[in-house]
Amino acid sequence: MSSTSVPLHISISEKLRQQIEAGDYLPGEKLPSEHQLMEAFNVSRITVRQAVANLVSQGLAQAQQGRGVFVTPRQKVAYALSSPLVFLERDLARKGIQFTFENLTFRKIRPSNAVQTSLQLPDKSTVYLQKKLLHMDGVVGAVDVSYLVLELGQQFGAQLKRQMTFPTLEAHGIVIAQIDAVIECTHADYEISGYLEVPLGQPLIVYRYTAYTHDQSPILHGETISRADRFCYSLSLEK
């Protein structure tokens, strides 16, 4: 594609993106004003606004009403998937990252067929649904949606509203022996876009998992849905 075929607002946003990635504009720094950008690129206000909107949609900039447009802080947290298992909050703690969560809901429901199959439950079973908003160093990074077998939800519900699931279970002798997981892409629906402060339909990372005890009994099925600009997964493999 020739350069003349690239829309002007795209050309400008690409130039700004390159400057951001090169460090000409640092994380948290304010970008030039609309008027300054109009003069710098000799373009109209609407073209500048389109260019800035491109940066915002890519997660590179944040518009703050009445203040201007700022480069998005590039703080990305990595959770190391390892064997033997190291749970999320423990892994982040050893990296010096403050981890907290907000309990959004904890209630008994009738699970979907997919959840029922994953937990190997008979028909008409009920489980506990928990939704948590995960914060890393005070910034929202992910939403965790999990389904816990009924007896464990009844027994530990009060604690699970204040503490993460796996450490709570293991503290009571329920050892997580295995986790089967898949990492793939999903898109923000209306609810998730509000929690993670992203546009509707934005691509997100989903870590979908099922946890088992020593006798291969599944006790928990869930998914952690995260912003790719704030959260990722790392893995080390040995031959």
TrEMBL record:
This is GntR family transcriptional regulator. SMART domains: HTH_GNTR, UTRA. Pfam families: GntR (PF00392), UTRA (PF07702). Keywords: DNA-binding, Transcription, Transcription regulation. It comes from Adonisia turfae CCMR0082. GO terms for biological process: negative regulation of DNA-templated transcription. Gene3D superfamilies: Chorismate lyase-like, Winged helix-like DNA-binding domain superfamily/Winged helix DNA-binding domain. The keyword DNA-binding applies. GO terms for molecular function: DNA binding; DNA-binding transcription factor activity. It comes from the Bacteria. Residues 6-74 form the HTH gntR-type domain.
